[in-house]
Amino acid sequence: MPDISITDNLGAPVGVKLDLTQPSSLVDYAKAQVLHLLVAPDFVARKDQPLTQAAAQPMRFAARLGNAFPLGLTQPEVTLTPKVEAVLRANTSAGANLFEGDAFPRAAAVPAGKGLVGLGMTGALDAGVGGSAGNLTFGLNAGGSMQIEFLKAFPTGADQPTLGEATGQMLSGYLIPASVDDLKRMQVNDICTVCGNGSLKVSGGFDVTTPVNPLATVTLPVNTGTLQVKDGLMAGVSASFTLSGSYQIRACRLASGAIELSYLRERGTRLQADFNAAAALTASFNGIDLLGALVGAISTNPADPALLKGLSADEVKMFTAAVQEGVQHSVQASIDAVLSSATDNQAAFQYELDLGALDGAALDAVNRALRGDLTGLTTLETVTAAGTAIAPGVKLLDSLLVRARTTGITLKVNLLGIVNLLSLSKLMSNCEMLFEPASGDLTIKETAQSERISSITDQLHRQEALRKALFESVLVTTTYRAGKAVALPELDSHALHFVIHRGTSPANVRDYLNWFATLGLIQPAEATSLLGQYPGDKTSNCVLRTVFNDAACEQLFFGADGRLRDEAYYLEFGRQALRAMLAPSPDVVDQARYRVLDDAARWKRAVDDGPSPELRQVIPLDSSDPHFDMALSLVTGDVYDLVWWAQSMQAAGEALLAVRQDPSLQGRRDTLQKTMLKVVAESKARFEQPWGMVAFYWAAGSPATASGRLSAGQWTVARP
User: Fold this and answer.
1) pTM of the model
2) Would you say which domain of life the source belongs to (predicted)?
3) Sequence-distant contacts of 107-114: CB under 8 A, at least 24 apart
């Protein structure tokens, strides 16, 4: 048994009585024979006063250890250090928050008729011990620091102790929440905490919704029949990850006798979810993990044996990896959203424990949770409501996993070619599967008659190729829908623009916010305010979406009088869309482009001249200006893009009109496909900016279906 003493700063005993025969973590885990605590004069002056007099107001007394004091079970794991000041504190103010101003400020009120006296000390974890491997590590980083505190409750009535007596009793029965046995020793209203930097292990099950985006491809013929896909749900996807950062494990004995066990993050910080160190995703469908689960979820005929029959072992492996990456991204995005929206007073996890009711499995799960491994508890959290028992003796009070399930986890699936092939099994027989982290979408794209995007090794070029393929597919699909060549009454088609920028500047963020404004997601004044909040992170991600149903496709091609839109209609929307993209730019070249688009007469001349030498005359820069040639090149591209867009839409409208008159005639559907094939083949449009998406959206009447998400570090703008 160690010798524990309390003296003043000069080493003189202060008369605080200790009873080391009481159960105490300092005794149980001691790996040294002496613990010397030195207290400040203000404590000595008050020690003989009744507790309510000594701490009429919440009091903190400086203290320090006179020697290093190692703790552990079978070997030293953490050493309480004299290098960092310890703190003695007392609080008898009923209703006061014990953790007011603390780094972990979640409220714990002083009960009426009670006072609490506590001691907080700092320790250093041994370099070879950390995580959940030891008994006193709590998931904290090896070699890092740890703060422990025990607050013991005392009566404040006639039988109240003095400050010194309360301190002696608190230190004699000092508790560290390392095991269920330690928690059993806590009396009503006692609190013990451990905090530091580390990682919590978490595992749980999720339902992942898989809405599909049915799109046509121009390289395949238009078939008639019923589309055999639907929005789906992958049920029971299991994910394991870690939560890293500064956290506190807090245990409190409630008036009912139960233990409230909380996991709290430090104020002003954020826990980080890491799926790389302990990534695991599982789901099953007909014996095939994840891939089969996804295909079975989105097929209207999940029992079709041909769904995956034609895939080679290598294809199954590659496709499963893509699905895993997509699901993992979706789960992490949901967890990150919950973490970013959490308040300082909100627990990451919180449970109510009836220690006497724990069975063997629950006992093991709680002991592991106290060591930083919560998987035994979180895997039981299949519920979506607080206050639910998840195991004998364990009631769930709060969980970020529950909040993530409530918010929902979504993996969007683009199906390029499904409108042509109708059957998912036919699409899967000749396809590539692409997960794009910039958008978070999984794309299944036919490769029977088109080039493989996955073969492009450069990430930026691959993203550009995918944006182009999606844009062209939206162009073709909206045409087919308006022409009644296909029937998709229950499914919408989505346009998508995405970008990841690893050298982000305020100018880039201004552009992204301007994109939001052009889609009506924010007002220009709000864009200015949001730009001022940009924290300066260099890696940013922007995703925009618009949705087209049959009504929007109809308005895209036909006016209220039922007549086809003409070329001028599309040209004007294209001009206004690109003009809006360039509106706030301080760049000299972009300003010149904007002036060409903004001046109706200058723009008309540019269109009349076309991509020719005469176009030099409309550039609003002197020919000697060093920016002139670049401006001329880009304005030439602008004219080409917008004229191509307008002429393509008009040509598509004329072709679809014939199909509308009799969609059953294969010849007319073939003519429509050939028209669209020619349109796409002639395209040299650039897709760095979402002018095409905006032009489509505006030309379809701005159907209020736009959404967007912009993130840079922990800063996020999401609308709606």
Assistant:
1) 0.85
2) Bacteria
3) 107/345, 108/191, 108/250, 108/252, 111/153, 111/189, 111/255, 113/155, 113/156, 113/157, 114/153, 114/154, 114/155, 114/156, 114/189
